[in-house]
Write a structure and sequence with these properties.
alpha+beta; Glutaredoxin; three-stranded antiparallel sheet; about 25% helix; globular
C-alpha cells in the first residue's frame, strides 16, 4: 500500500472543466452539469484502494448531509484499468450502488482530468466555492487504515461549513494520503 500525499493545487485555482462518463447513469456529465449552488467537492477515488475503502462510509454520510445544503459531490476514478481491472467502469457502477453513493462516479479514461487537477492519490479531495475557485484541498481527516483515529470528516466538514457560512476556509490544510493514482505507462 503506497502512501502518496496530495500535490496541493494552489488555493484560488479555478476548477478545470471536464466532461466524463458517469458510470452510474451511463451518461456524459460536465462540471457545469454537476456543480453545486454553494460549493462543489471533487474527489479522486477508486474501487480498490484501502484508503478509499476506509473513508467510504464518511464520504457517503457527508454527501447526504451537504448535498441538501447546496454542495454537490463528484467522484472521479482515473486509474489505469488495464493494469488495475478492479477499477473498470462496470465495477465502478457496482461499487457506487454497493456503497450507496448519492453522487456521480465518473471515469477519467484519458487521465487528463486527474492531471488538470494535479491529483496524486486516492482519496484526494478538492472543495470549490460557488464561483468554482479552490478553497480547500487535502485530507478528509486524520484517520487512516489501521491508525486507530476515528473517522470524522472534520477537515473537509469544517471547510464546507466555512463556505456555507460565507467565511474564509482555514489556510493551513493537510495533504490527503493514500494510494498513488495508477498512471498509464506508455
Amino acid at each position: 500500500m503506497a502512501r502518496t500525499p496530495s500535490n496541493m493545487l494552489p488555493l484560488g485555482t479555478k476548477a478545470p472543466k471536464f466532461e466524463l462518463l458517469d458510470t452510474v447513469s451511463d451518461k456524459k456529465c460536465s462540471l457545469d452539469d454537476l456543480k453545486g449552488e454553494k460549493g462543489t467537492v471533487i474527489m479522486f477515488i477508486c474501487n480498490h484502494c484501502p484508503f478509499v475503502i476506509h473513508v467510504n462510509p464518511m464520504i457517503v454520510k457527508l454527501a447526504k448531509e451537504y448535498q441538501e445544503k447546496g454542495i454537490s459531490f463528484v467522484a472521479i476514478s482515473s486509474n489505469d484499468v488495464e493494469n488495475y481491472p478492479q477499477d473498470a467502469p462496470h465495477l465502478m457502477k457496482d461499487k457506487a450502488q454497493e456503497e450507496d453513493y448519492t453522487f456521480p462516479y465518473l471515469y477519467d479514461e484519458t487521465q487528463e482530468v486527474a492531471k488538470a487537477y494535479d491529483a496524486a492519490c486516492t482519496p484526494d479531495f478538492y472543495l470549490f466555492d460557488s464561483e468554482m475557485k479552490l478553497v480547500y484541498r487535502g485530507q478528509l481527516d486524520d484517520s487512516r487504515p489501521g491508525n486507530g483515529v476515528p473517522l470524522t470528516g472534520t477537515d473537509l466538514k469544517n471547510a464546507m461549513d466555512a463556505v456555507l457560512d460565507g467565511k474564509a476556509v482555514v489556510a493551513e490544510q493537510k495533504p490527503s494520503l493514500g494510494c498513488n493514482i495508477k498512471w498509464v505507462t506508455t
